[in-house]
Amino acid sequence: MARYKRILLKLSGEVFGGQQKYGIDLEILKVLAEEIKSVKKLGVDIAVVVGGGNIFRGVSGAVKGIDRATGDYMGMLATVINSLALQDALERADVPSRVQTAIEMRAIAEPFIRRRAIRHMEKGRVVILAAGTGNPYFSTDTTAALRAAELDVDVVLKATKVGGVYDKDPMVHKDAKKFKKLSHMTLIQRRLRVLDTTAASLCMENRIPIIVLDLTASGSIKKAVQGREVGTLITVDKKGGG
Predict the structure, then answer these.
(1) How much is the pTM?
(2) Residues sharing a CB contact under 8 Å with residue 141, sequence separation 6 or more, in sequence order
(3) What is the DSSP letter of 96?
(4) Where residue 42 falls among pLDDT bands split at 50, 70, 90?
(5) Is residue 179 within 8 Å of residue 166, measured between CB atoms?
(6) CA gap 75, 68 in Å, rounded
(7) What letter would DSSP give residue 16?
(8) Integer CA distances (angstroms), 93 to 23, 35, 121, in order
(9) Which residue of 69, 86, 99, 171 has the smallest Cβ count within 10 Å?
(10) How far apart are CA 37 and CA 31, in angstroms?
(11) Pick the CATH number of 6-235 from 3.20.20.100, 3.40.1160.10, 2.170.150.70, 1.10.443.10
(12) Which tens digit of pLDDT belongs to each residue from 150-174?
């Protein structure tokens, strides 16, 4: 049984790069497709937002001398490449899907239309949302929060390479402590950079819970959808705030 009827899965671009962290790892794509397929079998509606950091990251490009807005647009195009790769992997796993982009490119994908995206999910298709919000200066985390609100999802699942939210970077500090549960406001106030402030605020305002989980742990997405304890749950506190 699934606890959540409709989810938004946020995948970072680095996930697509596998161990190398750049390019596209075909074996990782197969794993992603099977993970998503297992969740679809529970009767869950799925939307996916992908990053493009395995190909190009706007912020780092700006540091190296590329105009920030130009770099962000390049990053958006990178997310389209990842989205098409994921769609191909899903179709090979017999999971029907559609790619929708915030920047129109009708020869390869549909433009993002809220009602059409919802209809696709109702028909059992996975909707892959590419090109961010279509605007520079917004991260794909913010895109995930925005689309989650627009598509009326029950939860955002942010898939990372660590097991949840920690008080400090677990890749650097061995004594980092993991949170099992915390509020959106605590996440913002403590500047825990598992996702940006704009994304956390959007989810808080729209009362959308977030689960941060380890994608490398087999079955973690399915466990989260079933309501089993996995990763870190970020939710609205009992006082009604974040």
Answers:
(1) 0.92
(2) 10, 158, 195, 196, 198, 199
(3) -
(4) very high
(5) yes
(6) 10
(7) H
(8) 21, 10, 17
(9) 171
(10) 10
(11) 3.40.1160.10
(12) 999 999 999 988 788 998 888 788 8
Q: Tell me what the pLDDT averaged over the chain comes to.
A: 91
Q: Where are the domains of the chain?
A: 6-235
Q: Which residue is listed with tokens 């650097």?
A: 172
Q: Which has the closest alpha carbon to 96: 164, 54, 45?
A: 45
The rounded distance, in Å, linking the Cα atoms of 212 and 163 is: 7
Q: Determine the Cα–Cα distance for residues 128 and 81; give it in Å rounded to an integer.
A: 11
What DSSP character marks residue 125? Answer: P
CB 99 within 8 A of CB 23: no
The string of DSSP letters for 141-180 reads: HHHHHHHHHHTT-SEEEEEESSSSEESS-TTT-TT--EES
Mean pLDDT computed over 8-24: 89
Please give the DSSP secondary-structure letter assigned to residue 18.
G
Closest CA to 130 of 89, 192, 183, 73: 73
| CA–CA separation, 203 and 145 (whole Å) | 6
Residue closest to 242 by CA, chosen among 163, 193, 187: 187
């009604």: which residue's tokens?
240
Residue 160 to residue 231: CA distance in whole angstroms: 10
Q: Which two tokens stand for residue 231?
A: 């990763």
- Both tokens of 131, joined, read 């090109």
pLDDT, average across residues 118-136: 97
Query: How is residue 160 written in tokens?
Result: 């990372």
